[in-house]
UniProtKB/TrEMBL annotation:
Keyword Transport belongs to the record: yes
An annotated Gene Ontology molecular function: ATP binding
Organism per entry: Chitiniphilus shinanonensis
Protein name (database record): ABC transporter ATP-binding protein
Record key words, sorted: ATP-binding, Cell membrane, Membrane, Nucleotide-binding, Transport
Amino acid sequence: MTEISSPLLRLEGISLSFKGVKAISDISFDVARGRITALIGPNGAGKSSLLNVINGVYRPQAGRIVFDGEVRRRMDPHRAAVRGIARTFQNIALFKGMSVLDNVLTGRNLKRRSSWLEQALRIGRAPAEDDAQRRRAEEVIAFLHLQPWRHTLVSKLPYGLQKRVELARALAAEPKLLLLDEPMAGMNAEEKREMSRFVADVNREFGTTVVLIEHDIGVVMNLSDHVVVLDYGRKIGDGPPDEVRRNPEVIAAYLGTRH
Ligand SMILES: Nc1ncnc2c1ncn2[C@@H]1O[C@H](COP(=O)(O)OP(=O)(O)OP(=O)(O)O)[C@@H](O)[C@H]1O
């Protein structure tokens, strides 16, 4: 059995290159269960690549990943989703021609037990399952205050709301680990505050462990329990926000004295 006190995710010596160009060099850190970890660092530091390693989109050349007690050289995207890793993307990846509700329902696909045929003909397990899936999707929509737009096409929504729908779809999968790639990018200060509150609420209400990439240091300091700093693919800081903000190497990277 997995110990509650063990980290939900452990990265050990992860290195990743693209055609010989190093994107990530020997990165190790732990993500504690039920906490919010922020990944920060200048553009091109390797943050998105690292999320792609965690959910199995990229295959690291070295290192290993321990997720919820299971050790792997690499994750496989489907297996990562089945094991409870959900993510949102820097450039929103929703079905723009579908309603908010239908998008959130797609987040529940892995939870279905009925066969394709049962679903197509609405027989067997399908009808009861459809009702249960819909109820769960509606709960997530209510939790994230998206009810007024349940039947609105995603393409008709302003950017900030689309980001929230993406969060809803990821949450609908009931993940253990939620990976958020710049959930507040392109938002104004009020929208960022609102999104921060939603992320904090998700974490508190459902105990979901969160790893997020964020450029706004104010948001990071307020929201996260733990900060990991990357620069040129290397880890240059790892600790509580207050400690990391005093780290001279982090200050140098951010003030641009080495860039
Ligand atoms: N698919 C890819 N093919 C080749 N190089 C890539 C690929 N993905 C990322 N890289 C390179 O890897 C390095 C890290 O990029 P990554 O996108 O992970 O950084 P980042 O910290 O997320 O940056 P940003 O804040 O701009 O999103 C960069 O030099 C980038 O050009």
